[in-house]
Design goal:
Helices cover 32% and strands 14% of the residues. It is of the alpha/beta class. It folds into 2 domains: 159 residues, NAD(P)-binding Rossmann-like Domain (Rossmann fold, 3-Layer(aba) Sandwich); 70 residues, no CATH class. The chain binds ligand SHN and 1,4-dihydronicotinamide adenine dinucleotide. InterPro entries: Met8-like, NAD(P)-bd_dom_sf, Sirohaem_synthase_central, Sirohaem_synthase_N.
Length: 305
Protein backbone atom coordinates (compact mmCIF):
# COMPACT_ATOMS: atom_id res chain seq x y z
CA UNK A 1 0.00 0.00 0.00
CA UNK A 2 1.33 3.40 -0.90
CA UNK A 3 -0.82 5.99 0.79
CA UNK A 4 1.40 8.42 2.67
CA UNK A 5 -1.07 11.35 2.79
CA UNK A 6 -1.16 13.11 6.16
CA UNK A 7 -4.53 14.69 7.01
CA UNK A 8 -4.70 17.94 8.97
CA UNK A 9 -7.63 20.23 9.83
CA UNK A 10 -7.13 23.83 8.85
CA UNK A 11 -8.48 26.85 10.70
CA UNK A 12 -9.52 28.77 7.61
CA UNK A 13 -10.45 31.84 9.64
CA UNK A 14 -6.75 32.23 10.40
CA UNK A 15 -5.51 31.62 6.89
CA UNK A 16 -6.11 33.39 3.60
CA UNK A 17 -7.29 31.18 0.77
CA UNK A 18 -6.88 32.12 -2.90
CA UNK A 19 -9.01 30.30 -5.47
CA UNK A 20 -8.05 30.90 -9.10
CA UNK A 21 -10.94 30.02 -11.41
CA UNK A 22 -14.64 30.29 -10.61
CA UNK A 23 -16.32 27.94 -13.08
CA UNK A 24 -17.78 24.51 -12.39
CA UNK A 25 -14.81 23.20 -10.45
CA UNK A 26 -14.17 26.45 -8.57
CA UNK A 27 -17.82 26.34 -7.54
CA UNK A 28 -17.57 22.75 -6.36
CA UNK A 29 -14.45 23.47 -4.34
CA UNK A 30 -15.87 26.66 -2.82
CA UNK A 31 -19.25 25.21 -1.99
CA UNK A 32 -17.65 22.49 0.12
CA UNK A 33 -15.10 24.87 1.63
CA UNK A 34 -17.76 27.40 2.64
CA UNK A 35 -20.16 24.75 3.90
CA UNK A 36 -17.50 23.26 6.13
CA UNK A 37 -15.82 26.54 7.06
CA UNK A 38 -18.28 29.47 6.84
CA UNK A 39 -15.64 31.55 8.59
CA UNK A 40 -13.12 31.04 5.77
CA UNK A 41 -11.39 34.05 4.23
CA UNK A 42 -11.35 33.61 0.47
CA UNK A 43 -10.17 35.68 -2.47
CA UNK A 44 -11.32 34.49 -5.91
CA UNK A 45 -9.42 35.57 -9.01
CA UNK A 46 -11.26 34.77 -12.26
CA UNK A 47 -12.34 36.87 -15.25
CA UNK A 48 -15.84 35.39 -15.05
CA UNK A 49 -17.80 33.56 -12.40
CA UNK A 50 -20.10 30.63 -13.17
CA UNK A 51 -23.82 30.99 -12.57
CA UNK A 52 -23.88 28.30 -9.89
CA UNK A 53 -21.23 29.99 -7.82
CA UNK A 54 -22.93 33.34 -8.33
CA UNK A 55 -26.16 31.80 -7.08
CA UNK A 56 -24.44 30.28 -4.08
CA UNK A 57 -23.08 33.68 -3.11
CA UNK A 58 -26.12 35.72 -4.12
CA UNK A 59 -28.98 33.51 -2.97
CA UNK A 60 -27.64 33.06 0.49
CA UNK A 61 -27.46 36.76 1.26
CA UNK A 62 -30.58 38.05 -0.49
CA UNK A 63 -30.94 40.65 -3.17
CA UNK A 64 -28.37 43.17 -4.26
CA UNK A 65 -26.83 43.97 -7.59
CA UNK A 66 -23.17 43.26 -8.04
CA UNK A 67 -21.24 46.47 -8.17
CA UNK A 68 -17.77 47.50 -9.11
CA UNK A 69 -18.01 50.22 -6.51
CA UNK A 70 -17.37 48.45 -3.24
CA UNK A 71 -18.66 51.37 -1.21
CA UNK A 72 -22.12 50.86 -2.66
CA UNK A 73 -22.33 47.39 -1.19
CA UNK A 74 -24.25 46.94 2.03
CA UNK A 75 -24.10 44.66 5.04
CA UNK A 76 -27.24 42.62 5.59
CA UNK A 77 -26.83 39.14 7.01
CA UNK A 78 -27.74 37.77 10.41
CA UNK A 79 -27.65 34.05 9.81
CA UNK A 80 -24.54 32.11 10.62
CA UNK A 81 -23.04 30.58 7.55
CA UNK A 82 -25.01 32.76 5.20
CA UNK A 83 -23.26 35.05 2.84
CA UNK A 84 -24.18 38.68 2.53
CA UNK A 85 -22.93 41.47 0.41
CA UNK A 86 -21.04 43.77 2.63
CA UNK A 87 -19.06 46.92 2.48
CA UNK A 88 -15.41 46.42 1.74
CA UNK A 89 -13.30 48.46 4.05
CA UNK A 90 -9.67 48.05 3.23
CA UNK A 91 -8.65 49.25 6.66
CA UNK A 92 -11.52 48.23 8.94
CA UNK A 93 -11.82 44.79 7.44
CA UNK A 94 -8.06 44.54 7.09
CA UNK A 95 -7.93 41.25 8.93
CA UNK A 96 -10.54 39.82 6.54
CA UNK A 97 -9.52 41.04 3.13
CA UNK A 98 -5.94 41.42 2.02
CA UNK A 99 -5.35 45.13 1.26
CA UNK A 100 -4.15 44.21 -2.23
CA UNK A 101 -7.58 42.71 -2.96
CA UNK A 102 -9.60 45.48 -1.29
CA UNK A 103 -7.78 48.08 -3.36
CA UNK A 104 -7.77 46.15 -6.64
CA UNK A 105 -9.70 47.98 -9.40
CA UNK A 106 -10.94 44.57 -10.55
CA UNK A 107 -12.87 44.12 -7.30
CA UNK A 108 -16.27 42.89 -8.47
CA UNK A 109 -17.90 41.30 -5.46
CA UNK A 110 -17.57 40.94 -1.73
CA UNK A 111 -19.58 38.83 0.67
CA UNK A 112 -19.29 38.24 4.39
CA UNK A 113 -20.73 35.64 6.71
CA UNK A 114 -22.00 36.12 10.23
CA UNK A 115 -19.46 33.47 11.16
CA UNK A 116 -16.78 36.03 10.28
CA UNK A 117 -15.85 34.74 6.86
CA UNK A 118 -15.49 36.68 3.64
CA UNK A 119 -15.36 36.05 -0.08
CA UNK A 120 -13.78 38.68 -2.32
CA UNK A 121 -13.93 38.39 -6.10
CA UNK A 122 -11.38 40.00 -8.40
CA UNK A 123 -12.71 39.79 -11.95
CA UNK A 124 -9.51 39.49 -13.92
CA UNK A 125 -6.86 37.02 -15.03
CA UNK A 126 -4.40 35.57 -12.54
CA UNK A 127 -1.13 37.41 -11.90
CA UNK A 128 1.76 35.69 -10.22
CA UNK A 129 1.90 38.25 -7.41
CA UNK A 130 -1.64 37.20 -6.39
CA UNK A 131 -0.20 34.29 -4.44
CA UNK A 132 1.50 36.79 -2.11
CA UNK A 133 -1.83 37.52 -0.42
CA UNK A 134 -2.55 33.87 0.32
CA UNK A 135 -1.47 31.07 2.60
CA UNK A 136 -3.22 28.39 0.57
CA UNK A 137 -3.83 28.47 -3.16
CA UNK A 138 -6.30 26.46 -5.25
CA UNK A 139 -5.98 26.54 -9.04
CA UNK A 140 -9.20 25.57 -10.82
CA UNK A 141 -9.10 27.22 -14.22
CA UNK A 142 -9.82 25.38 -17.46
CA UNK A 143 -6.35 26.26 -18.79
CA UNK A 144 -3.50 23.93 -17.94
CA UNK A 145 -0.92 26.64 -18.56
CA UNK A 146 -2.69 29.03 -16.16
CA UNK A 147 -2.92 26.30 -13.52
CA UNK A 148 0.76 25.59 -14.06
CA UNK A 149 1.58 29.30 -13.69
CA UNK A 150 -0.35 29.35 -10.41
CA UNK A 151 1.66 26.37 -9.25
CA UNK A 152 4.98 27.96 -10.24
CA UNK A 153 4.11 31.23 -8.50
CA UNK A 154 2.87 29.45 -5.37
CA UNK A 155 5.96 27.32 -5.11
CA UNK A 156 8.36 30.21 -5.60
CA UNK A 157 6.51 32.11 -2.86
CA UNK A 158 6.43 28.91 -0.70
CA UNK A 159 2.65 28.79 -0.60
CA UNK A 160 0.77 25.49 -0.37
CA UNK A 161 -1.02 24.76 -3.63
CA UNK A 162 -3.82 22.56 -4.89
CA UNK A 163 -3.87 22.27 -8.67
CA UNK A 164 -7.26 20.74 -9.43
CA UNK A 165 -6.43 19.22 -12.81
CA UNK A 166 -2.99 17.86 -11.86
CA UNK A 167 -2.79 15.71 -8.72
CA UNK A 168 0.99 15.38 -9.14
CA UNK A 169 1.39 19.13 -8.60
CA UNK A 170 -0.80 19.25 -5.48
CA UNK A 171 0.73 19.93 -2.06
CA UNK A 172 -2.61 18.90 -0.61
CA UNK A 173 -5.85 17.35 -1.82
CA UNK A 174 -9.30 18.54 -0.90
CA UNK A 175 -11.37 15.76 0.58
CA UNK A 176 -15.00 14.89 1.01
CA UNK A 177 -16.24 16.26 4.29
CA UNK A 178 -18.77 15.12 6.84
CA UNK A 179 -19.68 17.44 9.70
CA UNK A 180 -21.78 16.35 12.65
CA UNK A 181 -21.61 18.98 15.36
CA UNK A 182 -18.01 19.01 16.55
CA UNK A 183 -17.17 15.86 14.61
CA UNK A 184 -15.43 16.47 11.28
CA UNK A 185 -14.50 13.59 9.00
CA UNK A 186 -12.34 14.12 5.93
CA UNK A 187 -12.19 11.45 3.25
CA UNK A 188 -9.54 10.89 0.62
CA UNK A 189 -8.91 8.04 -1.77
CA UNK A 190 -5.33 9.12 -2.40
CA UNK A 191 -6.60 10.74 -5.57
CA UNK A 192 -7.78 7.41 -6.99
CA UNK A 193 -11.54 7.88 -6.95
CA UNK A 194 -13.07 11.22 -5.90
CA UNK A 195 -16.42 9.67 -6.76
CA UNK A 196 -15.89 7.02 -4.10
CA UNK A 197 -15.01 9.80 -1.62
CA UNK A 198 -18.30 11.51 -2.52
CA UNK A 199 -20.32 8.29 -2.14
CA UNK A 200 -18.65 7.42 1.14
CA UNK A 201 -19.43 10.94 2.37
CA UNK A 202 -23.08 10.48 1.42
CA UNK A 203 -23.19 7.12 3.18
CA UNK A 204 -21.68 8.56 6.36
CA UNK A 205 -24.09 11.49 6.22
CA UNK A 206 -27.00 9.09 6.04
CA UNK A 207 -25.66 6.86 8.81
CA UNK A 208 -24.41 9.38 11.34
CA UNK A 209 -27.27 10.97 13.24
CA UNK A 210 -26.76 14.71 13.71
CA UNK A 211 -28.37 15.17 17.11
CA UNK A 212 -27.04 12.01 18.72
CA UNK A 213 -23.51 12.54 17.49
CA UNK A 214 -23.53 16.12 18.69
CA UNK A 215 -24.94 15.28 22.09
CA UNK A 216 -22.56 12.36 22.54
CA UNK A 217 -19.57 14.62 21.89
CA UNK A 218 -20.97 17.44 24.02
CA UNK A 219 -21.42 15.03 26.89
CA UNK A 220 -17.97 13.59 26.46
CA UNK A 221 -16.57 17.12 26.62
CA UNK A 222 -18.47 17.81 29.82
CA UNK A 223 -17.23 14.52 31.21
CA UNK A 224 -13.66 15.36 30.19
CA UNK A 225 -13.85 18.85 31.68
CA UNK A 226 -14.98 17.43 35.01
CA UNK A 227 -12.22 14.88 35.34
CA UNK A 228 -9.67 15.43 38.03
CA UNK A 229 -6.36 13.77 38.69
CA UNK A 230 -3.19 13.54 36.68
CA UNK A 231 -2.94 13.05 32.94
CA UNK A 232 -2.70 9.26 33.19
CA UNK A 233 -5.76 9.02 35.39
CA UNK A 234 -7.73 11.15 32.94
CA UNK A 235 -6.61 9.05 29.99
CA UNK A 236 -7.57 5.88 31.89
CA UNK A 237 -11.03 7.18 32.70
CA UNK A 238 -11.70 8.51 29.23
CA UNK A 239 -10.52 5.23 27.70
CA UNK A 240 -12.82 3.36 30.06
CA UNK A 241 -15.97 5.17 29.01
CA UNK A 242 -15.15 5.21 25.36
CA UNK A 243 -14.02 1.58 25.35
CA UNK A 244 -17.51 0.62 26.38
CA UNK A 245 -18.89 2.85 23.64
CA UNK A 246 -16.79 1.13 21.01
CA UNK A 247 -17.68 -2.36 22.27
CA UNK A 248 -21.32 -1.52 21.81
CA UNK A 249 -20.82 -0.36 18.26
CA UNK A 250 -18.21 -2.89 17.21
CA UNK A 251 -20.72 -5.61 16.55
CA UNK A 252 -23.03 -3.18 14.85
CA UNK A 253 -25.58 -3.72 17.61
CA UNK A 254 -27.24 -0.68 19.13
CA UNK A 255 -26.14 0.09 22.65
CA UNK A 256 -28.13 -1.73 25.31
CA UNK A 257 -28.23 0.88 28.04
CA UNK A 258 -30.22 -0.23 31.06
CA UNK A 259 -33.31 1.92 31.44
CA UNK A 260 -32.40 5.31 32.88
CA UNK A 261 -28.71 4.61 32.64
CA UNK A 262 -26.05 5.18 30.07
CA UNK A 263 -22.75 3.89 28.85
CA UNK A 264 -20.80 6.21 31.12
CA UNK A 265 -22.24 4.56 34.17
CA UNK A 266 -22.04 1.07 32.77
CA UNK A 267 -18.41 1.74 31.93
CA UNK A 268 -17.82 3.18 35.35
CA UNK A 269 -19.03 -0.06 36.93
CA UNK A 270 -17.36 -2.57 34.63
CA UNK A 271 -14.06 -0.75 34.41
CA UNK A 272 -14.21 0.77 37.88
CA UNK A 273 -12.46 3.80 36.46
CA UNK A 274 -14.53 6.99 36.68
CA UNK A 275 -16.83 7.25 39.65
CA UNK A 276 -20.44 7.96 38.79
CA UNK A 277 -20.00 11.41 40.27
CA UNK A 278 -17.80 12.08 37.26
CA UNK A 279 -20.49 11.25 34.81
CA UNK A 280 -21.37 14.35 32.82
CA UNK A 281 -24.92 14.57 34.00
CA UNK A 282 -24.00 14.09 37.63
CA UNK A 283 -25.28 10.50 37.67
CA UNK A 284 -28.44 10.93 35.63
CA UNK A 285 -26.77 9.44 32.64
CA UNK A 286 -27.00 11.24 29.33
CA UNK A 287 -23.91 10.31 27.43
CA UNK A 288 -26.00 8.56 24.86
CA UNK A 289 -29.59 9.31 24.10
CA UNK A 290 -31.87 6.39 24.84
CA UNK A 291 -31.70 3.91 22.02
CA UNK A 292 -27.96 4.35 22.02
CA UNK A 293 -25.51 4.84 19.26
CA UNK A 294 -26.97 4.09 15.90
CA UNK A 295 -24.01 4.91 13.70
CA UNK A 296 -22.03 2.47 11.58
CA UNK A 297 -19.91 -0.22 13.17
CA UNK A 298 -16.63 0.98 14.57
CA UNK A 299 -13.78 -0.21 12.39
CA UNK A 300 -11.64 -1.39 15.29
CA UNK A 301 -11.25 -1.27 19.05
CA UNK A 302 -7.55 -0.92 19.61
CA UNK A 303 -6.58 -0.31 23.20
CA UNK A 304 -5.86 3.25 24.24
CA UNK A 305 -6.95 4.75 20.97
C1 LIG B 1 -6.68 14.81 -6.51
C2 LIG B 1 -7.92 15.70 -6.26
C3 LIG B 1 -7.37 17.11 -6.20
C4 LIG B 1 -8.32 18.12 -5.60
O1 LIG B 1 -9.19 18.57 -6.34
O2 LIG B 1 -8.16 18.41 -4.41
C5 LIG B 1 -8.96 15.56 -7.35
C6 LIG B 1 -8.67 15.50 -8.68
C7 LIG B 1 -9.56 15.25 -9.74
N1 LIG B 1 -10.91 15.09 -9.62
C8 LIG B 1 -11.46 14.81 -10.83
C9 LIG B 1 -12.80 14.51 -11.08
C10 LIG B 1 -13.85 14.52 -10.16
N2 LIG B 1 -13.81 15.03 -8.88
C11 LIG B 1 -15.01 14.87 -8.29
C12 LIG B 1 -15.35 15.29 -6.98
C13 LIG B 1 -14.48 15.65 -5.96
N3 LIG B 1 -13.11 15.73 -6.07
C14 LIG B 1 -12.55 15.91 -4.87
C15 LIG B 1 -11.20 15.87 -4.60
C16 LIG B 1 -10.14 15.60 -5.47
N4 LIG B 1 -10.21 15.58 -6.82
C17 LIG B 1 -8.74 15.35 -5.00
C18 LIG B 1 -8.54 13.89 -4.59
C19 LIG B 1 -9.40 13.45 -3.42
C20 LIG B 1 -9.11 12.04 -3.03
O3 LIG B 1 -7.99 11.79 -2.55
O4 LIG B 1 -9.99 11.17 -3.14
C21 LIG B 1 -13.59 16.04 -3.79
C22 LIG B 1 -13.47 14.79 -2.89
C23 LIG B 1 -13.43 17.24 -2.90
C24 LIG B 1 -13.65 18.58 -3.55
O5 LIG B 1 -13.64 18.71 -4.77
O6 LIG B 1 -13.85 19.53 -2.77
C25 LIG B 1 -14.93 16.07 -4.61
C26 LIG B 1 -16.11 15.26 -4.04
C27 LIG B 1 -16.78 16.07 -2.94
C28 LIG B 1 -18.01 15.45 -2.41
O7 LIG B 1 -19.03 15.37 -3.13
O8 LIG B 1 -17.99 15.09 -1.20
C29 LIG B 1 -15.88 14.21 -9.19
C30 LIG B 1 -17.29 13.72 -8.87
C31 LIG B 1 -18.35 14.78 -8.94
O9 LIG B 1 -18.07 15.96 -9.16
O10 LIG B 1 -19.52 14.38 -8.79
C32 LIG B 1 -15.18 14.01 -10.39
C33 LIG B 1 -15.65 13.37 -11.70
C34 LIG B 1 -15.64 11.86 -11.56
C35 LIG B 1 -14.29 11.23 -11.25
O11 LIG B 1 -13.33 11.43 -11.98
O12 LIG B 1 -14.21 10.54 -10.20
C36 LIG B 1 -10.41 14.83 -11.79
C37 LIG B 1 -10.57 14.52 -13.26
C38 LIG B 1 -10.93 15.81 -14.01
C39 LIG B 1 -11.15 15.56 -15.48
O13 LIG B 1 -11.30 14.41 -15.89
O14 LIG B 1 -11.12 16.57 -16.22
C40 LIG B 1 -9.24 15.14 -11.11
C41 LIG B 1 -7.86 15.29 -11.70
C42 LIG B 1 -7.23 13.92 -11.87
O15 LIG B 1 -7.60 12.95 -11.19
O16 LIG B 1 -6.31 13.85 -12.69
N1 LIG C 1 -10.20 18.35 -9.01
C1 LIG C 1 -11.43 18.13 -9.39
O1 LIG C 1 -12.26 17.75 -8.56
C2 LIG C 1 -11.82 18.32 -10.82
C3 LIG C 1 -10.98 18.99 -11.69
N2 LIG C 1 -11.36 19.23 -12.98
C4 LIG C 1 -10.46 20.10 -13.79
O2 LIG C 1 -10.69 21.46 -13.38
C5 LIG C 1 -10.46 22.36 -14.47
C6 LIG C 1 -11.48 23.48 -14.47
O3 LIG C 1 -12.69 23.06 -15.09
P1 LIG C 1 -14.07 23.91 -15.04
O4 LIG C 1 -14.24 24.53 -13.70
O5 LIG C 1 -15.11 22.98 -15.50
O6 LIG C 1 -13.83 25.07 -16.08
P2 LIG C 1 -14.82 26.29 -16.40
O7 LIG C 1 -14.63 26.62 -17.83
O8 LIG C 1 -16.19 26.04 -15.89
O9 LIG C 1 -14.23 27.50 -15.50
C7 LIG C 1 -12.98 28.04 -15.75
C8 LIG C 1 -12.75 29.21 -14.81
O10 LIG C 1 -11.38 29.61 -14.94
C9 LIG C 1 -11.36 31.02 -15.07
N3 LIG C 1 -10.15 31.44 -15.79
C10 LIG C 1 -9.86 31.27 -17.10
N4 LIG C 1 -8.67 31.83 -17.36
C11 LIG C 1 -8.20 32.37 -16.22
C12 LIG C 1 -7.05 33.09 -15.86
N5 LIG C 1 -6.09 33.39 -16.75
N6 LIG C 1 -6.89 33.50 -14.60
C13 LIG C 1 -7.86 33.22 -13.67
N7 LIG C 1 -8.96 32.53 -13.95
C14 LIG C 1 -9.14 32.12 -15.22
C15 LIG C 1 -12.62 31.40 -15.77
O11 LIG C 1 -12.94 32.76 -15.55
C16 LIG C 1 -13.59 30.42 -15.09
O12 LIG C 1 -14.05 31.02 -13.90
C17 LIG C 1 -10.42 21.51 -15.71
O13 LIG C 1 -9.08 21.58 -16.16
C18 LIG C 1 -10.76 20.09 -15.27
O14 LIG C 1 -9.90 19.15 -15.86
C19 LIG C 1 -12.57 18.83 -13.45
C20 LIG C 1 -13.44 18.12 -12.63
C21 LIG C 1 -13.13 17.83 -11.24
Amino acid sequence: MNNPLYPAFFRLDRLQLLVVGAGAVGEEKLSFILKSSPNARVVIVAPWMGEELKSLLEEQHGAGARSRDPLSLVVTTQDEGHLARSQVQGEGQGSQVPPAAAEDPALAGYWTTAAGGSVTWLARAFRREDVEMADLVVAATNFKDVNLAVHTAAKSARRLANIADTPDLCDFYLGSIVTRGPLKIAISTNGQSPTFAKRFRQWLEAELPELETTSLLDNLKTFRDRLTGDFEAKVRQLNAVTNSLLSATHTGAACQCPAGECLVEAAARTNSAPSSSLSPSGGRGELLPSGGWVGPSAPGTEKNT
